[in-house]
Amino acid sequence: MPQRWPTIATLSTAGTGTVHAGGDSILTVTPVYKGRKRSLSGERAADLRARAAAGESKAGLARQFGISRQTLYQYLRSPTPTPAPTPR
Q1: For 74, which DSSP code?
Q2: Is 28 helix (H, G, I), strand (E, B) or coil?
Q3: Could you tell me which of 53, 40, 52 has the C-alpha nearest to residue 81?
Q4: Dist CA 6 CA 64 (whole Å)
Q5: Is the dihedral of CA 35, 46, 63, 69 positive or negative?
Q6: pTM above 0.85?
Q7: What are the pLDDT digits (tens) for 17-38?
Q8: Sheet strands (E) in the chain
Q9: What is the side-by-side strand order in the sheet with 24-28?
């Protein structure tokens, strides 16, 4: 007799990234994308803001920090540094 797959109604997730049917792990669910890792830590972003406020060249700062000028301006526009997400 061929093995029957469970119906959608009988599948449940246990928060581990695996779909379970009756306790048996049968399918793997890809983790949810949480966004891209920040280019700069909060400390480095604060340093970037201070140096830009002191009048250093924005293009030079972008090169030194290894980010694009567009990213540099996004960091300068944001009012406070946002902490990097903590790993789970």
Answers
A1: H
A2: strand
A3: 40
A4: 55
A5: positive
A6: no
A7: 555 555 555 667 778 888 888 8
A8: 12-13, 18-21, 24-28
A9: 12-13, 18-21, 24-28
